[in-house]
Amino acid sequence: MDQKVEYKGKVCVTGASGYLASWIVKRLLLSGYFVIGTVRNPGDDKKLEHLWKFEGAKERLKLVKADLMEEGSFDEAILGCQGVFHTASPVVTVLHDAKTEILEPAVKGTLNVLRSCKRNPSLRRVVLTSSSSAVRIRENIDRYVPLDESVWSSVELCEKFQVWYPLSKIMAERAAWEFCKENSIDLITLLPAFIVGPSLPSNLCSTASDVLGLFKGETSKFEIHGRMGYVHIDDIALCHILVYEREEAHGRYICSSTVIDNNELVAFLASRYPSYPIPERLKDLFIKPYYKLNTTKIESLGFKFKPLEEMFDDTVKALTKQGYL
Fold this sequence. Notes:
Layout: E1 9-13, H1 19-31, E2 33-39, H2 45-52, H3 57-60, E3 61-65, H4 75-78, E4 83-86, H5 98-118, E5 125-129, H6 133-136, H7 155-160, H8 164-182, E6 187-192, E7 194-196, H9 206-215, H10 220-223, E8 227-232, H11 233-245, E9 251-255, E10 258-261, H12 262-272, H13 296-299, H14 308-321
Parallel strand pairs: 1-2, 1-4, 2-3, 4-5, 5-6, 6-9, 7-8
Antiparallel strand pairs: 8-10
């Protein structure tokens, strides 16, 4: 055990090599936790090398194989852990039937992890990563009343427009709440806005690639946003640990720094980073409703979000260092 940090116990992070999960692992190690990270292939040295570079990793990180779609696959990783951070999502490469290939794995994977949690007598709390898309896809939004944690996105609207990712988040989160209520598991869910920030894995995930695209003038992914909340990836990692540690934390937590229209975003970026081919306006593909996100619940725990400037400055610095920009 390294001398610098106070040992805080053992926790599990699912999908440990992912964009957000890597930051959670990094922050947990810095905080003094022993981390069991689940990955699909513990022998994939190239994909996992960034995790072993974290401070404390040699002493307090263990990577084990687990598969979201295999019942009991998480038993070994979760047994003996006081906390579980479930961030892993099924990876979908080829879509023949989006509804079954995205929705069913999201729900089944979440329930498989929670069943392993149920079998662990050491468990204190589970923190599940959901999404702000589980609250903001609605009709007839009152522009003067920010959306809070009591609100859920419309399943009917998601099905109508065939937006399967938000629907998968809604269904997985609802399934988690139902299972945890029936089995007396202390569950907290975090609902982050669009995550921006440095990628610790060398290969960029789709979210990080979309942000890189903006700086190369490729804006198609952002044209469909219309209006979106943005949040620094490190803030989301810190929020996971905050709600895990604070006894009074409960329920759902929306995590967002700034909600901004897409044209306001690109105008801001074009002005701040004039050397990149960022357009000053995007096509308005859809008329999206105006909304704000109410973050007073997470802020009441003492959390303060980094501003838009900092999240994009940190991203540009990292993308440049990694040779993407």
